[in-house]
Amino acid sequence: MAQASQISALELNCPIKVEHDRKRRQFTVRLNGSHDRAVLLYEYIGKKTVDLQHTEVPDAYRGRGIAKHLAKAAMDFVVEEDLKAHLTCWYIQKFVKENPQPQYLERVLH
């Protein structure tokens, strides 16, 4: 008899769910129903300006588009809150370059 195991949303090809924790200033994706998670960290550097600082996906989950979901959620947050964004994180810089939507570009500080 097969041993019961937790099956992740990623293994079932379910949509990736990004959670936003405003208090901790981070976006997260829970992985495999465990404590593993992918994270995007940001800080407010002004009243209406955020610095999107760092994106991290555990090695075992890289290459599955998780960071892209985090970056999109963060940039959509910037747009929805009418903020400006400084992109310290190289991955978010890459995401915006590959997805040059006007609503993103007009909010990025250079």
UniProtKB/TrEMBL annotation:
<dbReference type="Pfam" id="PF14542">
    <property type="entry name" value="Acetyltransf_CG"/>
</dbReference>
<comment type="similarity">
    <text>Belongs to the NATD1 family.</text>
</comment>
<dbReference type="InterPro" id="IPR031165">
    <property type="entry name" value="GNAT_YJDJ"/>
</dbReference>
<feature type="domain" description="N-acetyltransferase">
    <location>
        <begin position="19"/>
        <end position="109"/>
    </location>
</feature>
<protein>
    <recommendedName>
        <fullName>Protein NATD1</fullName>
    </recommendedName>
</protein>
<dbReference type="InterPro" id="IPR045057">
    <property type="entry name" value="Gcn5-rel_NAT"/>
</dbReference>
<dbReference type="InterPro" id="IPR016181">
    <property type="entry name" value="Acyl_CoA_acyltransferase"/>
</dbReference>
